[in-house]
Amino acid sequence: MTRKYLSFDIETAKILPQQTRDIHAFRPLGITCAAAVAQDQENPYLFYSKTASGAYAPRMTPEDMGRMIDFLLEQMAAGYTVLTHNGLGFDFDILAEETGRIVDCSAIALDHVDTMFHFFCCKGFAVSLNAAATALGIAKTEEAGGAIAPVLWLQGEHDRVLRYVANDCRMTLEIAVTSERKGRLKWVTKKGVTSELLLRDGWFKVKDAMKLGLPDISWLDNPWPREKFTGWLMNEP
Questions:
Q1: Mean pLDDT of successive 10-residue segments in the chain (237 residues)?
Q2: Whole-angstrom Cα distance, residue 175 to residue 134?
Q3: How much is the pTM?
Q4: For the chain, which domains are there?
């Protein structure tokens, strides 16, 4: 299956307590910026808002976030497949809440490839981007780090945060494309062992991953239901 991917990622605005385990408990989170990286283009698309004086705004405005949604819809219509790692359970859920455009965000989410959700539907647990990157020998560039990105944005380190979110898009894209070409996603487990998920038919879009049978999760103490990721959607397939 040949696709032309457009990787997408957001950075949230709210500064959270250290060691926060459930970021959703602090919603609404706001969005400071976002990025998109096309598979066939070198330079990223960067999204943020500015104040009346031309300075970086503390958060993106609903209008600018709406234009970002329009951009994604336009790119999909032009033949790109939007790609994320946990975009279903996070990025598009947050974007829908911030803009009120739940129908459009649901449509994008269902028709895009979320590598983490595909993995979850197959295995019953989540895998981090870092775990997959480590297995492929890809070094994650810690320009900011998701947990401190809101702090850095507030402190005026806008370029640093924008580099970070763009690099996350590039990493997601590299992992997805490399894994699809090799027919398997490798990741390093918490025990330090490299494991793999076969991708005989490539990555599934969310709407197709949702149709996969439930894996055996009897060995997990507190397994997540799929509704953790899909509960916010409208017009599920």
A1: 91 83 83 98 97 97 98 98 97 97 97 98 94 86 70 95 95 97 95 95 97 90 93 77
A2: 10
A3: 0.94
A4: 4-230 (3.30.420.10)
